[in-house]
Amino acid sequence: MTHPTIYQGPVFDMARRQFDGVADLLDLSPDERDRLLYPKRAMAVTCPIHRDDGSVAVFEGYRVQHHLTLGPTKGGTRFAPNVDLGEVAALAVWMSWKCALSGLPYGGAKGGIAVDPRALSRRELETLSRRYMQEMIPFVGPYTDVMAPDLGTDEQVMAWFMDTYSMYQGRTVTEIVTGKPISAGGTHGRRDATGNGVAHLAGRAMEKLGIDPKSATAVVQGFGNVGSVSAAALARQGVRIVGISDHSVALHDAKGFDIEVILRHVRQTGVLKGFAQQAEIDPKTLPTTACDILVPAALERVIDAGNAAALRCRIIAEGANGPTTPDADAIIEERGDIFVVPDILCNAGGVIVSYFEWVQDLQRLFWDEAEVMRRLYEILDRSFAQVVGRAERLGISNRNAALSIGVQRVRDAKGTRGLFP
Asked: Beta strand 217-221 with 240-245: parallel, antiparallel or unpaired?
């Protein structure tokens, strides 16, 4: 597009830069580039609620649906103070490439509300969740757009979403969202799917590099759902977790942490702070701590031009979306000593098992956890092999290999269907 767009900000600029590099690699025409990159539709809504003190608060909400060429759109909904339309659009774009890479019949979507959920009571959180879904009802559906949890939301929020949509439909529609509690139509394995997938692919990277997990170390930046599950799963492989962080503190101990003990502390207190005061370090130094595996599992753009040259890891397993900026990618590629498992591959476990949940809800036929995990690892292993194979064959980075596979599949589908009318 030669004219300004509504999609602005550093996160969307990052997604656009990544896409432009892959578009050059695939030799896409200008017409194809605009059609592939820019979202099909975007919604901005206001969500007024009654606070517990009787006042009325109004929150801004968003939903972006990138493309519906392969099927309904799919993507999480985050509640965070810094949510804006540009960030949501970038996450929807990345979700499109992620779904296509994994072979899922989805386009990408993303939604969010600009709010700190920790500042809300449980009643306020439920009211805001239900109001947001109520505003989205004209634009979503099991065959149009299927929501899932993301930063600041969980399976309880998804249950409220599902119940709200179902009340307006006059029947239970479990397939409108994924990431629900099992008691409300969820699937075994969904809660831990992203983190288990990150650890699984980190294991594949260790195999590729000839690293023995029992002698390996890892640093996990971000100890939310994805980071904590990744840390626990890596520890089960024998990896020593020497660094962890959340929004409250960063901790480092070369001897390693007992992740199960830390998980109990976090369940009791809600944060890492207070676990080991003597191990506290500056959070900014955590990504450059010496380790074999670095797992950025928090927010976007934490590895940038300012710290990429100082990284002291052999593998980056991207649990978060967009943790590495294009400038950092260039530095890492020039270094040539770090194996990157890019985000659209590494954290795809969540959307893959969400797809399984959607399929099970549609069929009203559910699988046990062993079946879910077997199918998940089959898809991850296939995608890993395709990405590494293309990277080696074309002499490109793993990120560009993964993105080019996803973009090419969406491009082919759009070309086959044509342009209507």
From this structure: parallel
Binding residues for NAD(+): 194, 225
Instruction: Kindly give the confidence (pLDDT) of every residue in the chain, 421 residues in length, as a single tens digit, with 9 standing for 90 and above.
Output: 555 689 999 999 999 999 999 999 999 999 899 999 999 999 999 999 999 999 999 999 999 999 999 999 999 999 999 999 999 999 999 999 999 999 999 999 999 999 999 999 999 999 999 999 999 999 999 999 999 999 899 999 999 999 999 999 999 999 999 999 999 999 999 999 999 999 999 999 999 999 999 999 999 999 999 999 999 999 999 999 999 999 999 999 999 999 999 999 999 999 999 998 899 999 999 999 999 999 999 989 999 999 999 999 999 999 999 999 999 999 999 999 999 999 999 999 999 999 999 999 999 999 999 999 999 999 999 999 999 999 999 999 999 999 999 999 999 999 999 999 8
Q: Token pair 């199960």 is at which residue?
A: 260
Backbone angles phi, psi at 211, to 5 degrees: -95, 130
Binding-site positions? 74, 98, 194, 225, 354
| β-sheet bridge partners, residue 61 | 45, 113
Q: Which residues are catalytic?
A: 110
Fold: same for 10-22+36-176 and 193-346:
yes
Contacts of 170 (CB under 8 A, 6+ apart): none
Residues 36/407, Cβ–Cβ less than 8 Å: yes
- CATH 3.30.413.10 at 193-346, yes or no: no
Instruction: State which fold the 10-22+36-176 domain adopts.
Output: Rossmann fold (3.40.50)
- For 335, other C-beta atoms within 10 Å of its C-beta total 11
Domain range summary for the chain, segments of one domain joined by +: 10-22+36-176, 193-346
